[in-house]
Amino acid sequence: MNRAAKVLIAINGVLATLALNPGVQSAIAGFAVHHPFLLVFGASLSSIGHLLTDSRKQAGVS
To answer: Are 52 and 20 in contact (CB under 8 A)?
Structure first.
């Protein structure tokens, strides 16, 4: 695996971890009130978090 792919996987892991944190989600939402372009970023983080949570539940991982 090349270095760029490893970096993208690492970034994706960090974003996924942040997406699962409700405090981070609410902080992004509060900041996005003043910076509307962040609503898209916050929504994508939230979607990633929900997808990960759903897939973990289906796999039986707590």
So the answer is: yes
